[in-house]
Specification:
245 residues; 28% strand; 11 strands; alpha/beta
């Protein structure tokens, strides 16, 4: 009896979501890929109300579209919320839910892999760097062209020199295998990969922001726009006083 109560509660919740404004019925196709127009994070938008900025996403495994996005931008600029929204839309669609987007068209995913956050495993004697590499290795072994991979600042658990090398090697492997990937980084050197012939499946994007000038105390100020746009962001503004948009 408890099982069926849980099932009924889930179905009622999905029905409630389907009737909300701004939610649409996802369309499935046989080819692997994901194409979302005006996608939103279902929880973050509840906190921001009318100020939430929706974004698009388009990934495919064929040669005509990018299979991987290299995402840069200021700290607190919305990178992690953006990739999480994509993952949540994919999960919601596959459990039979309407999704927070104007339109969503996607193939069936066999898995959604994430490598986010920085933590160690003291009980096993594993450093942050070892945990990071172990999880990334498992992802590379299991992922297929029907998988979606989210990597957030891969390589930050070690020195910058080694971190860049690890991040580039993993990104090259994923692009060569045409696996759908959202790759967040602060390593500016990775931006050059888009122009290399064997990396045609990679596209550079960043979270848009504007420089609002100098504050009364002479400090540099920027405004976040939370909009995904083409190209690299060439600074992370980690030590700048932020003005939220």
């Amino acid at each position: 009896d408890d099982f069926w109560r849980i099932v009924l509660d889930c179905l009622c919740s999905l029905a409630d979501v389907a009737g909300r404004p701004g939610y649409s019925k996802p369309v499935f196709r046989s080819e692997p890929g994901i194409c979302v127009s005006q996608g939103r994070h279902p929880m973050v938008e509840q906190a921001l109300l009318d100020s939430y900025v929706p974004n698009d996403i388009r990934l495919a495994t064929d040669s005509n579209d990018a299979s991987a996005l290299l995402i840069t931008g200021p700290n607190m600029g919305g990178k992690s919320s953006y990739v999480r929204s994509v993952a949540l839309i994919a999960v919601m669609a596959q459990i039979g839910s309407f999704v927070p987007a104007e339109r969503a068209e996607l193939g069936l995913f066999d898995a959604i892999f994430t490598r986010m956050g920085a933590f160690d495993n003291m009980m096993r004697g594993e450093s942050t760097f070892m945990v990071e590499l172990g999880e990334t290795s498992d992802i590379l072994k299991q992922a297929t062209q029907r998988s979606l991979i989210i990597l957030d600042e891969l390589g930050r658990g070690t020195s910058t020199h080694d971190g860049v090398a690890i991040a580039e090697a993993v990104l090259r492997e994923l692009v060569s295998r045409r696996i759908m990937t959202l790759f967040i980084t602060h390593y500016q050197d990775l931006g050059r990969l888009q122009d290399q012939g064997d990396m045609a499946g990679l596209r550079n994007v960043h979270m848009k922001f504007t420089d609002t000038g100098k504050g009364s105390d002479g400090s540099e100020e920027i405004a976040f726009l939370y909009e995904v746009t083409e190209g690299m962001a060439h600074r992370s503004y980690g030590l700048v006083y932020y003005i939220t948009h």
